[in-house]
## 1
Amino acid sequence: MPSDFPPPPSLHPRLPAPCRREAELLSGLLPPLATTLDWPRVVSTARPWVQAVRDKPAPFWAMESLLREYPISSAEGLALMRLAEALLRVPDTETAIALTADQLGRAAFDSQAEGPHKMLATLSASAISLSKKFLPDSPGDNGLLKRLGAQTVVAATVRAIQLLGRQFVLGRSIREAMNEANQAREHQPGLRFSYDMLGEGARTEADAQRYLAAYLNALEAIAAKRATGDPTTADGISIKLSALFSRYEELQRERVFAELLPRVWQLVERAAQANLNLTIDAEESERLELSLDVLDALAARIASTHPQWRGFGLAVQAYQTRALDTVNEVARIARRHGLYFMVRLVKGAYWDGEVKRAQELGLPGYPVFTHKHHTDISYLACAQALLSHADVVYPQFATHNAGTIAAVLQLARKANAPFEMQRLHGMGEGIYREVMKDPLIAVRVYAPVGEHRDLLAYLVRRLLENGANSSFVHQLADDEVHPEELLASPLVPSAHPGLPWPIDLYGPRRANSTGADPTNRVERASFEAAIAAARPQPIALASVADIAPTMARLQQGQHAWTRTPLSARANILRRAADMLDARLHEFCGLLVREAHKTLGDAIAEVREAVDFCRYYAEQAEERLASQSLPGPTGESNELSLHGRGVFVCISPWNFPLAIFTGQVVAALVAGNSVAAKPAEQTPAVALRMVALLHEAGVPRDALALLHGLGETIGAGLVADDRTAGVCFTGSTAVAKAINRALAAKDGPIVPLIAETGGINAMVVDSTALPEQVVDAVVQSAFRSAGQRCSALRLLCVHESVADTVIEMLRGAMAELTLGDPGRLETDVGPVIDDEAFENLQGHIARLRTEATLIGETPLHSTLPRLVAPIAFELQHIADVKKEIFGPVLHVVRWSGAPETVIAEVNALGYGLTLGLQTRIDGRAHQLAEAARIGNVYVNRNMIGAVVGVQPFGGEGLSGTGPKAGGPHYLYRFCAERTLTINTAAAGGNAALLAGLRN
């Protein structure tokens, strides 16, 4: 393997920012198309193709048939999709039965379709009838007849899913796929193929090496059958860079160049030697700049060793707002190195994921077009650009849309440039049967290769893309859609985006907090500067003697503050939110330096604090305003809510800004004054936030900060007679101590709002996708060095998949990077202080003697207080006795009824967060209902609750409620008063008498 690739290039961006307004982009894309394309000619070209496909329906199991019979938007289509995604990987019969019953039982496969679709309808109806008749009604119903019937239905369903898989996977091995390709060429001699090895991206080094071996094996097999000639006309392979390196990420650029590039070079060199073509598949938008860096580095190497090779290429996704910029940058790279690239233009494969990521990160827009026809415009603009770069680019147009195909043919003929069309195996065959009647049009098939059980993610993605109601493939199967409507010109941009911008995610009354994307190179530089400039200043400790005068001042100040109009208090919170939003970089730098947070965690925390301010402002105006109540005539009744007095807010170090801010502003907007006692490890963040709140308009005698030890300052504030309420986040032991102290005081009964920790579990059954499970486990257990109250502590995995999940988890842990959180490539930074470090080391030492080590992250840094993520296997759930606040994971295998697992988790006494990983919808709901847990997360990670979206808080040993960031939180900070006035006391009931006169 070559080891002399240059170091990563500078971080200077190659492309514009990804989140730009669609209208502005389209105004640049449309004019060249409008002057070149004759759309009526497009329609006249494509209409006969559409009619021919409808006159000669697609084969029985083809995509068009499936979508006609069972649209993805229907219960039946969704059931088929979910079964296809999960059933083949389920190893145990019990769970396979439960999954089949769950999915088929939700649908009604009773279509009366005729012709070639009748068989599918009949088979489906029979399967659902059998499942309803024979499947066990409960896990304990194990009658022999019922069991045999259930297994029969499952076996039939598995076979049906395998038949479905055959339509989308060319072969289970590269040699089988090549034989199938040769048979296809007997009917259509001009077909070319690009083989793709099925599977998800690598999670471990073992995964990456397995994919590398599969790619090399494919190249050898193709090369053995390859005749000499132009690689653009030959078969080839498509590779995913994320399959060859588990950390193919922008923030791991140095590792990408050191570890990934030599692997890719093995493939590139073998393809070049055999004169084949090799295409790098497209990935998500946050990897686009990195992909271009990799392309550039490989191109430089190719230019020096195989300058005549014309088979190297990549895919470009037209749904990305930077697609045209990418096309032009690829052409620039080719010209700079004197090479000729093959470029596959696709519409895109990750649209929903891109949208969700932009919303979750609070980006200023979307990196993809939000209207499908805008993607079509972008596609045609990219097609035109690729054809204009014909001296350095061989364009490959992948589409199933007849209108797009006809438009591309028109553009290509005007440009007089070579090109080829592409389709997916199992899709679009009817259209291309008609297109290929023109012998001058070359067509390549993108052909997945692999076992049917590996097709799940690929298949579901393809079904969602092509099965959406707006897709051409879906509408092609609908005879009610007129060809003119189906082929309507996309060159008419919509005036408004197809989705609300991320800032408008929560509606017109509350703006989403402004986020940032660390993979954006321009933004990253500004964050790095802010981190370098951050200097947390020492904060003077308050003394016990400071408590009484501070509380007296706050008590006096509360009288004026609570009389401040509710709208004015709410507006102060909104003003504070806007100010904090604008100071994102400053506060992120402070969080990284004082609280040892990684940049991603710091950004999320600042955003959470902003969200708390805006959400509680909105909630206060909606829920705390006075309201009139019904009653008898002659009197009025009014309910009003008021601040209780001085609230003591005691916050933790693990979220020194978000939790601190959430407690303080909730108490303030309800009309209380606040004595804020931050964690002694992180006072600088708290002091900066208090200063911001004062700047926003909170009176100084309504909010004061006292920095000191919990044993002295915290205890003194709780014991003070003027304390009207306590809001606490921290350990269960300290919460109990506060509760006892409040109960022992004379005077009013003082409310305690406590959010404490938990032994948080994740339960995984055998239907779950292991890659998704491991992603969720690594994020939930080890992000923030495991120092979140919501962090995963106990992983419960079904015994039939435990070995697979544990092995993958071990490998994923080995790929994490430990070190200075100020370095953006760091995944896990140090724990908060020496005491935490020593406690964790003691617990880990005990586990090494009492449990079985699964794996731990290598520790190469000498930075103090680093605790390497580590996982141990235990025999029983009950063996986990207490919460361990750090990157330590306990794993237990389970079998039998999943309800028993939930009962054992409940018996631990904590109730903060729970993760469920299952594809059985009914099971997820049943287990969530049985769990005495505050926050339950299904098929995702268990951390990062969003204000107003996932109100956060537990029960049992995990807190008192109400949930922070939820609609009931503010009430606990209030006293309720009712005013009743006898309006008839003076002179009778005038209103009633007036009504009688009328």
## 2
Amino acid sequence: MTPRSLIAALTSAALVVSPAAASAQSGGGSLPMPPPPPGAKAGAAKPATPAPAAPAPATPGTEAPASDKKPATAEAPPPIPRKVDPAIFDKALQDYFDGDARAAAGPLYAWLLAAPKTDDNYAWGQYFLAKSLIDLGLTHAGASYLARIARERSNPNVIPRALDALKELTDRPHDDVMIDEQVFGALDLGFLPEETGAYAHYQQGLVDLRVGNERWANTHFAKLSETSAEASHAKFAMLVTRLKQVKEPSEELIADFLGLSKDEKLTREARNEAALAVARLRYERKDFTGALEAYNLVKLPELDPGRASIYLEEAWTRYKLGELRASLGILTTLDAPSFRDEFLPDKYLLRALIYRDLCHYLPAKRAAKELTRRFADSLEAVRNRDDLTQDLRLRRAANSHGGTQRAARFVETLDLEGERLGRYAGSFGDRLFTHLTKLYDLSRAEAVRVYDARLADAVRQEADTLLRAAEQVRLMEYEVGLKLYERVKKGAKIVAPEDEQLLTPDSVAFRFNGEYWNDELKSYRVSIESRCIEETP
């Protein structure tokens, strides 16, 4: 079996990935200063003009020109700040609570531009502007204002609400540097509510794990309640970190992953990742029966087709157990329309191995050639040292998992919200629309930079996987070619066929007619006879 690196797969599942360079904070930092008022108040006293300064003594032998004897003028004092009409804020707030977020956003932004940052309602204005933008589908713009509230901390009453709203946004594609690292990863945790504080401790522990400070990470994780979901996620992250540090995983480590696969506090996806970790570790230890039991722990939603990589791993496991027909049935599953665009070069190698073991040499040769035929363009690009990020197959494979997938989804989110922003050009007003347009342009430029960097690394890994499979296929073709022309010795006979498993009274079998049904994808079995010849001594 030549699956993707085990450690990389588990690290991606635990979200313990190397942090990218800090994303550009589109709209980060402090808000623009309000424009200066047009002149001083009526009735204000004008400053007196100071007396002319005494002229400097002339240099001996010269006479100071008359034009140089002008009096100096003192700078005017700054104008008195103009107070903002609170009715603007109250009206915008009323529009928000009436459910008209579009009408509230423009006035709230205009009020924030004019109001001093020391105003008691300034942080509330940021909060309700953020909530208005989120309600309108502009989640990244809203998150940028919520992040400002958390960083500036001007009003302690607003910070818990802002953090709760940010925590909800982490379930969607988001700027993980701005939210996870710069907000939750850098918070003073003493004043936070229990639920938000638990998430902040978890994020800060992850940051410590990424830089190798396991002791500090344990300090944060120890403050999590044992009954919280964050505690289970933290345990999974710690197990992955320990797995990277050992050459041979112990039974205790596998048992810990197995316990997490049954932890109801975790989401179904997290429990599945823990079960997959158990299956992969047992496979590496050549405990194929135990690995197959762990694959059966993966629970999918009803009628969900499943993940192609899991099917392929299970097919390799059954092949190692000698269940060739069951393995070939799973490979038939991977030919379903749901999986035809999946990047699975090992699928053709495994099919060729099965046909070879059953002495079906021509089908084995065809299966081996199918890999080089299907991935001919990608292999040619690798040989020519082309830009692999422009290869559609390699690019699609890189975008299907890990940090590259998260970065790609965030870029897609920014594109979608950038298009959505155009709908509000008239109702937002010129200032807010211009500000948000600039915010999304800067954020997208940084998100694309991060995505391109991750994509370049990911496509190289996918290209390595393809090259290894292609090399093994070439060796397979050579071996099969020798078998085709091998002479049969006198007295040899065909190996006795295996007894096929009979159907039980509660089982039904149908002949496959080319149709694929999601509820049958794991039930395909292939009936094929062995053509191998047993030589007599």
## 3
Amino acid sequence: MRNSPIRIDTGKASALVAAEEAEAADAEQLRNLGYPQLLRRGLSGFRNAGVAYSIICVTGGMSLTYGLIGMVYGGPAVVFWGWLGVGLLVLALGAAMGELTSAYPTSGGLYYWSARLARHHSAAWAWFTGWFNVVGLVAGVAASSYGFTFFACAFGDMQWGWNVTPTLEGIVYVAVLLVMAVLGSFGGKIIGFFGALSIWWNTVLSLVIIIALLAVPEHHQSAGFVLTTFVNRSTLHWNWYVSILGLLVGAETFVGYDACAHLSEETKQPGVAAARGMVRAILAATVLGAIVIYALSSAIQDYASEAAGTRTHSPVGDIFVDALGFTFGKLLVLGLAVALFVCVNGCLASNSRMVYAFSRDFARTDDGRNHRLSKLMSSVDLESRTPRVAVWFSCLGALLIGALQLWSTVAFATAVTVNVIGLYTAYAIPVFLRLRLGDDFERGAWHLGRWSKTVGWIAVGWVALADVLFCLPVVQPVFTWGDFPYTLPAFLLVIGGAALWWGLSARKWFIGPRSMGTPEQLAALEGELVGAQRSSPTGV
């Protein structure tokens, strides 16, 4: 009897070898940037992009701003054309950031870029960029949690007749944050799962909304109504000014895509995948969001009633119910809540990685100080390879901001708007520094070629305009306690606090990103982590 020959699948063997070589190359690239590979690198480019796509949340996020802002400030025409215009400007900003992600794929993202790109005072640039990014991301977690709470309570009222009170909203808000913090503590697989889910959920839900709103209602608004009708339901009298405020629908939705950079240490081949993910997430949201907006506006049955959201506590919910019936409309509201639930996961993941990376450098100083809190927040759980302390710190920050909602809706709205300004400013600083560096900038595998400078200046110009836009008064008269635009004073308070800390203390010891060792030393540290992982469940 002859022995059967052993067959080796050379294709699978080659693929395995290629994957191992790519993983080794990714780890080596990170070591050359000064950090060991402590986090588990398991995210594909698709899932990396999915996290950013979930944070933009073209269904839930846009539906929230469409009803609360768009139907008041400018109406259908301003919302549609404003969304497209803002989407293209944000695409320029995302592409400029993508170049930097490709060159420096670390979890620190923006503040690391600023330190590497600044010709002088690199620690100061890193300090301010980092704090803008952290403050913006913490408030972003709060904003997405509020969005989920908004639509979850609307569904609860429609399904079970909930009496939606601030106390109930507070309970739902706390619950979603705690659930996502627990899930986020289990590592990149959960994040990757939600990242992939977000792509399918937001895309399929968008298509369902588009098809249903265009096919089911017996009455539709004309294309002329959708594309040319201007509506001013605010207390402001200048239509041109109201049109500018209508741009907030897109400007407040297109944030958080820097998650691609913050998750780069957990992404395979991040020099290309993370950069492409950022651009693809923005482009997909721009196109799909414009079609959803067209469908929503064309399905409006009673503008005044639906803008008030009298039936479902949500203007978009009222459009669904009036156009599609109560049951179908209710299910779509539930779909928006699920989309925002996934959005909370993306925001928390991005924020925790930024906190982890910032703390990693915050803990190392020239004067030998031992920043125990920073070391704790930059620790990595050995079992899950996840910065669990940073996850819970980010959750706590969002809980504190959410407490403002119980005290004052104006204070909460201000905190959320500061989120957007903080993020936009953090986005622009490294792009500006890259432009100043000129041809001395060393490009990564993904770049814009000869369009780099043009796209970069468009991006910086858009951020300068957007920062002004977020601070504009939205009601008239302005100088009343409830309606005063507190965003600018609050933002200046954040800047002032960071500047005061820097001037009095941090400038003496904060050194910004610094290599944690030679590539050989970092590789040895990774080996020690693997050994420790087998014998201890504690963090490192």
## 4
Amino acid sequence: MNSPELLPTIPSLLHESSTSALEWPRLRDHIAGRTFSPLGRAWILALEPCADLPWIDQQHQRTAEMRAMLLSGGSFEFRGLFDPTLLLDKARIEGSALEGLEVRDLLTVAERVAAWRTLIDPPPNAPRYDWPAIDALSGSLRAFDLNPLLHQLRGKIEPDGSLNDDASPELRRIRRAMERQHRAIEESLRKSLRGLNEGGSTQDELITIRGERFVIPVKAEFKRKVPGVIHGSSSSGQTVFIEPLETIEQNNELVRLLDEEQSEIHRILVAMTRALGDNATAILTGTAILAEVESHAARARFAIDLNCTRPTFTNNAVATSTATNNVVILSGAKNPRISPEAPQTRTAPPESNPTNNPVISTELRASEASRGGSGETRFSTTTPYEPNTQSPDPQLSLVAARHPLLELRMRASAREAGTEAATPVPLTITLTNEARQLIISGPNTGGKTVSLKTLGLLSLMAQAGVPIPAEEAHLPLFTSVYADIGDAQSIERNLSSFSAHVVNLDRISREATASSLVLLDELGSATDPEEGAALAVAIAQHFLDIHAWCCITTHLTSLKVYAANHAGVLNAAVGFDQQTLTPTYQLRLGVPGASAGLNIASRLGLSPEIIAAARSQMSTQTADIGAFLDQLHDQLTAAATERETLRQREQQLAREKIRLETEGRAEQKARTKELETKLNSLIEDFAYQLRETVKAIDDKTLAQKIARDSATRIARLRREFSEQFNSTVVAHNTGADKADPNAQPHIPKGIKVGDLVKLKSLGRQARVDRIIDAKTYEVSIGPMKMRAAIDDIAEVETVKVATPLEAARKRGGITIATANDPDYMTSEINVIGRTADEAHAEVERFLDRAFLAGLPCIRIVHGTGMGILRRTLREFLRNHPHVATVTEPPQNQGGQGATEVELRQ
């Protein structure tokens, strides 16, 4: 038989994924930490990104359905799942017997599988989730039914793995015989102890056990006075343990019963093992399904926590032509070489901006003709940017994306500091099929490398079936992800930083294709700046030629110029505040960024003389480009400020609108109240006139009849008028139809059995005994029962459930007092050393006091010993009217030596 796979089988793994450089294992460990079973954790840890789109879509769909289930308040218990393969293989062996703990663990798995089958295939009237992908995953489980197995085994294994007395009638008979034999032996030994104690021969009035035989302690000097068998002595030698002659046969009988008990236990375990083996296929199938389901639940919890979104995958076809002009998005920039009097270009409306960054779009093209005969590169402005509505959708688009590990670390730091957690500055990147290469520049510590890692890690997450932290995500389907990030020097391989980067770049350049994502950090660094710049441009050109998706961070001006002059390449910059000389960590697409090395050095306190000398060494072209970029970013900041001002004005208008609506509602409420008062006054005047008219009637009998009838009719009309008036007001305020329940506040809602209701027809209070349907109830007034329509119910009073003590104290003339204040009453009793009868009496008295005090649960400490006291007490407790449940605490809280009891409320 082929066993189902308990770990994922992932098709079409990426040729290269750079998981270590992009910290995929760290993120995977974090998601695995959101599972509750070792099997679910192992499933997550085996997760890898792949290039099989049907598998990826299937994973995202299942995670989305589990997310919807969790958000709707649904849940499922995954604790207790483990790999049951070895135990089930053992269970299939004829005549084998699993240990009690092993049977318990397999039974827990079977219960989880049965519960899941009920969840996906509920009874006809039970709620049903709309999750087609999860339903398809679990479909094979419908062929199995584990309920007969659970009915056969459930309740027969204790939490510690021992068998319950109800495991079989024979086991119950044997254990009852053992208990009787225990009592007989104890009674016989007590008689012997009383006789010996009078002569001072015994060390203590105590019955103990040695080698499964009951014995009594006797002082060593009197051991010859007690006829019997010695079963050892104390460590000091002052006490010997003797089995009196009259109890030897009784102990022999007890040993025989113990042997019978073990034989019966073995027989039951063999039967249980055989039953589990017969259902091994169902258990393995369900376990494999639940392992994946838990992985989706963990991913769903991660997605809810970080507000993630499901990515979509766009067509990754290679463009047939890359001859289009490159569009670089700027913000009303001016060239410092152009006269200040030059006309300003018109800016496009903010809606045309393809990103969430505060950028007002203006087209700036760097044409080959702008270089001039001297070869000097200049920026030139052209016609304003107009959105092209015919262009295809972006192939790669991340809107307001966040690095998940960075956000989690910021949350952890905030928790440690006791402050409110901040979120990373969101990243927005948009690349098209015609412009697949992005050059990111800007100051040190500005977030260039984080942008690179965010793009790479989110791509791996998307292709591993994990939702990504972003508002929107449209990604190509990558067949490989290459990342050259950080210092890759190796002393063992005799490689410097530059050599290691070159070796890595050589491998990437040979293996990367048009469906690859290439991430290069600080390309061209760690060597001579001129040679490094030339090499960086050549490498970037290579990846542009093969049409690979590529993102490069740099400080090199040559790469910024390369991006401006080549179709298919976009510039981007991380923000820098010129006033405070600090990075803003915002990524702005379409503009190159200045490295601001001198500004940062100045902020860090480097000597002004050194800074001035450095500035004098800069070439005129470099200074002009730096000035241009500084001016450009100032204008972008101004645009962002203006947008923020507009947003604040919109918020102010919204608040004013709310204020006016509130005042209008208050005025309307006042007018409604005034109208209601006037109408009530008219009704009162009418009733007064009617009463005066009745008084004028000479026939007293007729007058009394008319008075009664008119009073009843006026009361009914007043009630009906009030209901219609309220309904009309609500309908007017909400726009609801008068038949809508929301427009009928006079109709009571939420009536439950046991509530007290006021009947309009009788003017008396009745108790609800039964709900016949949504509009009819069976009520009782004393011994009289009747049916009442919902229209006849005026008000509802919910009856609070009181504790027995509270209920008793409410009875007139009765005073209930407990030995101690219930707030200080202990919830634990210790009966170690008591006989069964003594323990029963003490526990029963303690139960009564705890029940009257309203305690929810108590704890009984009885010790381990031979288990006699534990079994008899638990049997007594299970039949006690005050007890709801009897459980054994965990091993670290007493285990078999204690019992926890939940009391009825």
